[in-house]
Amino acid sequence: MWAYALIATGCINWSYQRGEAGVITKSAVVVIPGLILIAITFNKTIAAKLETKAAKYFWGVVGGLALIFAFVN
Fold first, then answer.
1. SS3 of 13-26
2. How many domains would you assign to the chain?
3. What is residue 66's predicted lDDT score, i.e. its pLDDT?
4. How many helices (H) and strands (E) in the chain?
5. Residues 30, 63 contacting (CB under 8 angstroms)
6. Which of 2, 28, 34, 37 has the fewest CB atoms in 10 Å of its CB?
């Protein structure tokens, strides 16, 4: 769910700021962590590590910072 939120926010950000310079880079900062997170879920070994508290905090911070970046820019 978190990965989908990142990807959707990045795509919406790109859509709203399409005419501005550097919008692809700004949107990629939000979309790429979401794509990485979705890719991780397809590997059972790595996906099992997402259940740890450290991984949850890590992806929470990464996603939170990406979303803040999207809303500020």
1. HHHHCCCCCCHHHH
2. 1
3. 87
4. 4, 0
5. no
6. 28
Cα→Cα distances 58→1, 14, 18, 61, 63, Å: 15, 25, 30, 5, 8
Specify the DSSP class assigned to residue 42: T
pLDDT of residue 9 exceeding 90, the answer is no
- Rounded distance between C-alpha atoms, residue 48 and residue 46, angstroms: 5
What global pTM score does this model have? 0.81
Distance CA 57, CA 27 (A): 23
Q: What is the pLDDT of residues 12-70, one digit of tens each?
A: 888 888 888 888 888 888 899 999 999 998 999 988 888 899 998 998 899 889 888 88
pLDDT in the model for residue 67: 86
H or E element that contains 41: helix 23-41
